[in-house]
């Protein structure tokens, strides 16, 4: 019986954590300074969002193809079910948030690239959809942040109670 996730999943988990933190911080800063047109931040934010989207598919593939450690028997069945639902929601949001950001850029008439590599325009420029895509991306990001916080608090709670869960992903 294995006790840890496959190394590829563990590495991707922590790389994606760092990338999401960077994207979120840069996203907040660039929106606050929107009037100064911080284009370098926008390019980094969008490129890193595309990178995260690619990494989540690699991570999902690795997760499907590898054996998963069994849940701790110290955690109740209902908590295990909630944890599984939270993880599924996080994966869903890791896909939807970058797509909503891509749509936001395209609808506003901006292209998206991957660190200089031009990517296709998927969504047509459409002023009627600008406010909707702004709100959608904004609320999805904060939903992701809320679900991530729940995930983090659960890990902290279990660690404080002496239930070692962090070792599975480190």
Secondary structure layout:
Blueprint: H1 7-32, H2 39-65, H3 77-107, E1 113-114, E2 117-118, H4 127-160
Antiparallel strand pairs: 1-2
Helix pairs in contact: 1-2, 2-3, 3-4
Quick rundown:
By secondary structure, the chain is mostly helical. It is built from 4 helices and 2 strands. A two-stranded antiparallel sheet has the order 1-2.
Query: What are the low-pLDDT stretches, counting only 5+ consecutive residues below 50?
Result: none
Mean pLDDT: 95
Number of helical segments with 4 or more residues: 4
* Percent strand: under 5%
Strand order of the largest sheet: 1-2
Architecture overview:
There is one protein chain. With 170 residues, this protein is mainly α. 69% of the residues lie in helices and 2% in strands. It has 4 helices and 2 strands. A two-stranded antiparallel sheet has the order 1-2. Helix 3 packs antiparallel against helix 4. The mean pLDDT is 95.
